[in-house]
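ZP: hey, is the 2-phosphoglycolic acid complex queued? I don't see it on the tracker
AM: it wasn't, my bad. submitting now with these inputs:
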Amino acid sequence: MATTRRALRRLLVSGNWKMHHDHVEALHTVRDLGLRLGADDVADVDLSVHPPFTDLRTVQTLVEADALPLALGAQHCSAHDRGAYTGEVSPQMLARLGVRYVIVGHSERRHLFGMDDATVAATLAAVLRHGMTPLLCVGETTDERAAGHTEDRLGTQLRAALAGVAPEAVATMVVAYEPVWAIGTGNAATAVDAEDACAFLRQVVAEVAGDGAAGSIRLQYGGSVNGDNAADFLAEPDVDGLLVGGASLQAASFVEIVRAARTALPPVRP
Ligand code: PGA
């Protein structure tokens, strides 16, 4: 099973820095990552870092100058290309900076900034329009889980975001299952919960965009991931990566997670 999965989908470990690290701290963190990461660490794993907007240019310059094995990511963007949208950052601007992945609909955007499903869908379409990969976040709250509505919630969020997206585009996307109760709490989901949710999400993708897209789309788990639990999630057949918040802020703890990815799936040798 793992061999099949590996052949179809490379693991993706992403670090969401949230509102941490100014551009000077970003420079030190990325340098430190560059020193710690070896070729073996990224042979079978893709990595992305998602710093605040003000750090992107600094990180981009460093990654390019030192050819670091890190893709540049953003945490959010506008659904619009340009215009009178004070305080917003356009996907076009991100694409111009070499941003490859954009987190769309993180639960903090949904819950703290009122991002609704329609805005999530428009933002996702904008990211795709500019040739970047959306990293769509979905997840249920504590109350929704307690009421037995987890699958309803995940299905509604995913279907709303994917409506109108071509199956070939869906195939290139990343979806992160991030239960709201597990984010930043130290109370991670179990690997079995993460697998159940990801298997369900893959089934919804199959219904919406076909089996091809369902086989190719990468599904991450996020919520209190650390070096001790990372391998358990990645050993699950439908979990193709991790979206890491707190533990991605320090190079040492992020690299620990990257190395756990290697142990979860030992390289398949011909
Ligand atoms: P956490 O955050 O790893 O700090 O729980 C995850 C996320 O919000 O993406």
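AM: back. The CA atoms of residues 141 and 180 lie 5 Å apart.
ZP: great, adding it to the tracker
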